[in-house]
Amino acid sequence: MHPRTRTTIRVRQTLLAALLSAVAASASAQAPAAAAPASFGTPSLKELFEAAWARQPEAQAMQARRDAVQAQRRVAEAWTPEPPALEASHKTDRLTRNDGARELEVGIAVPLWLPGERRSSAALADAEAAALESRAKAARMRLAATVREAWWNWQRAGVEVEVARGQLDSVRRIAADVARRAKAGELARADQRQADGTVAAAEAAAAQADAALTVATQHLKALTGTTPNLLPASTAAAEPEPTTTEAAMHPALAELQDRSAVAERAAALAATQSRANPELTLATTRDRGASGERYGQTVTLAVRIPFGGGPRHDSRVASARADALEAQAQLELDRARLQAERDAAQARVDAARAQLAAAERRAALARETRGFFEKSFRLGETDLPTRLRIEAEATEAERQTARTRIELAAAISAWRQALGLLPQ
């Protein structure tokens, strides 16, 4: 072959190799980018909570309730407790004597506020407006507890799936090694059967973990209306630990306090409404006594004052005061209960943090031990039952570490829930 031809072939081969290397590098660089949307598409706990709240009946009816409270406030600001009424009457003797007697009366009746009723009605409207907002915040906190529980159950199920799949891959590698060595005559067929049985048990555990994850995923979907990824992130982002500046009145306590204020204002209003509202009537009358007479016109100014008191008024006042006392007593009970929950949640966080440190040390030791026995098993210095036992211990240590990490994050979330803080 001509030297120039050989040189041309070598140049072409070099260029082809460089092109293939560039294509491979581009493919490897694009592979993580293709996998990124799966993790990026996983909604956060805060996003799932907001999606769940948007589906709640309280959220959908909130604006209508605000409009109702504003309308009640406008009623308290009106000049009269009820709209005025038009009165009209016509008298005639056409059906009796028919002498031509006629009388036409037209007037307007205006209800009047009782002493202190208007002020008490305005105070009640303001209290109900505040109670509406606090009730919505308390409903959000109750929903937050449900979403948090579903979220961390989903995370726990995801950890179980990851650990089960990792254990299955590990025992499959051991079973493949045992099969190869049994075929070469280095191990007995009983060892291969034992390794295959371990693989079957790991497959059953992985299937059970997958089923549990599916149940947790569907529960979260039914609650939020959002379908999360089938497998959560291996390291779920924990909520930030609460600080002393974030601790404020719990929405549940604020709801009870506002409910107590509404009951007290309602009792004050009931006390002022000891009778029905009086009425002021202004009327004009046009009449004649017989045919041929001229019509005369008069003006009437009347006041109608109902009698008050009685069992009905006493019943309303007693019922309103009973509601106020009940709300106040419930407020004291819930204040003590929430304080106990805060202390317990903080203690749970401290215990989970200590457990995580111990579990990480155990997992590190188990990994080192597994490496030692894996090497000795390949060299024939360790039997198969010991190798499988060490593998099971290492897997259990990894499972405990992953579980404890999730439990620490869940404990912090429960601590925030006890303090009345929404998901972050």
Give a short overview:
The protein is of the alpha+beta class and 424 residues long. The protein has helices at 3-40, 45-54, 57-60, 62-77, 117-183, 189-224, 251-272, 311-378, 384-419; strands spanning 85-92, 102-111, 279-288, 296-304. A four-stranded antiparallel sheet has the order 1-2-3-4, with no helix packed on it.
Give a written overview of the molecule.
It is a single chain. The chain has a four-stranded antiparallel beta sheet with strand order 1-2-3-4, with no helix packed on it. It contains nine helices and four strands, in the order ααααββαααββαα. The protein is of the alpha+beta class. A hairpin with a 7-residue loop joins β3 and β4 (296-304). The protein has two domains: 49-78 and 113-274 and 309-419, Outer membrane efflux proteins (OEP); 83-112 and 281-308. α2 crosses α5, α5 runs antiparallel to α7 and α5 (117-183) runs antiparallel to α9.
CATH class of the largest domain: Mainly Alpha
Q: What would you say the CATH architecture of the largest domain is? A: Up-down Bundle
CATH level-4 homologous superfamily of the largest domain: Outer membrane efflux proteins (OEP)
Helices and strands, in order, run as HHHHEEHHHEEHH
| Structural class determined from secondary elements | alpha+beta
Radius of gyration, in Å, reads 40 Å
- Rough outline: elongated
CATH topology of the largest domain: Outer membrane efflux proteins (OEP)
Number of domains: 2
Largest sheet properties? 4 strands, antiparallel
Distance between the termini: 74 Å
* Mean pLDDT value: 82
Strand-residue fraction? 5-15%
Give, in spatial order, the strands making up the sheet with the most strands. Answer: 1-2-3-4
Unreliable stretches (pLDDT < 50, length at least 5) are 1-40
Number of helices: 9
